Amino acid sequence: MTSATPLDPTTLPLEQKALLLSGQDFWSTPAVEAAGLPSVVLTDGPHGVRRQQGDFDQIGLLESVPATCFPPAVAVGSSWDPEVAERIGAAIGVEARAIGVPVVLGPGVNIKRSPLCGRNFEYYSEDPLLAGVLGAAHVRGQQGEGVGASVKHFAANNQETQRMQVSADVDERTLREIYLPAFERVVTESQPATVMCAYNRVNGVYASQNRWLLTEVLREEWGFRGAVVSDWGAVDDRVAALEAGLDLQMPSDHGAGNQAVVDAVRAGRLAEDVVDRSVARVAALAGLVTEPTDGFDVDAHHALARELAAGCAVLLKNDGDTLPLGSGRRVAVVGEFARTPRFQGGGSSHVNATRVEDALTALRASLTVTFAPGSTLDGSGDAAALRAEAVAAARDAEVAVVFAGLAESDESEGFDRSTLDLPAAQVQLIRAVAAVAPRTVVVLSSGSVVSLEGWHDDVDAVLAGFLLGQAGGAALADLLTGAVDPSGRLAETIPLRLQDTPSYLNFPGEQGHVRYGEGVMVGYRHFETAEVPVRYPFGHGLSYTTFATSDLQVRTNDVDAATVTLTVTNTGERAGRHVVQVYVATTAGPVRRPARELRAFTKVSLAAGESTTVAFELDRRAFAYWDVREHDWVVAAGEHTVQIGDSAADVVAEATVTLAGDAVVPELTLGSSVAEWFGHPVAGPQLLAGFLATMPEGAAEMHEGMLQMIGSMPMRRFAADFGSAIPAAELERLMTAAQAAR
Question: 33-52 pLDDT, tens per residue?
Answer without folding.
Answer: 889 999 999 999 999 999 98
